[in-house]
Write a structure and sequence with these properties.
12% of the residues lie in helices and 44% in strands. With 239 residues, it is mainly β. A hairpin with a 2-residue loop joins β4 and β5. It folds into 2 domains: 39 residues, no CATH class; 150 residues, no CATH class.
Length: 239
Amino acid sequence: MSRRWRFRIPAAVDAGGARLLHFAGCAGSGPAYWFVFRTQAPGQMTVDRGHEFELRNETAINVAGLLKGTTGEARSYRMTLDRFPLGEGLVALDVTGHVRLTRLREAVIARVEVEGVVPLECARCLRVYDQAFETSFAEEYRQTVDLRTGVDLEPSGAEDDDTARIDENHELDLGEVLRQEILVSLPMRPDCGAGCPGPDALLGEREEPPAPDNRFAALANLLNDDEPGDEPAEPDRTT
């Protein structure tokens, strides 16, 4: 009995932006059995956790599935970034938070809440300490390509060079906006807190001044008594 296996290409895209591979197999003239396998879209590190996706060490999200939905449809993600460079020698560590994407007419609005720590140098003692931060923001990402036709979309009059956009691969990247928001949340003058030892930490423990040498005390007294300009006393001539 001959066996025959069939694949259906191209794969569809689900609501989370991942590809669905439809696979069918049949033996002879028997009924076909369809199996659906969920494969990850390239460049997106997400794991489906029920109704919330996990975004680990990645800030780009494929929103093709969301753009196929109706206006008002939303997707939720839990974000975890072990290390997130901020530029200027700074890096955010252990960043965790939540991302919620909502479908608009020709855009997606991202609402982000994160917290973490950034190693900073204290302005008082110059020691490095972990500065905790938390920030939240909302950013609108405009479509640049129509999902169904592939035609470039004309920018609206309100857009400028700073407008966040969904790229031609239907991905939005939270990275740049997140980086700016974390930097703004950091203190202008870093301070490691109430336990800061202050500038004395730069010098170490202060040493007591050395005790004076008493052997030179008598000589110092003689020098003080015999200062230049003193006139010698006149001898007594009354006798």
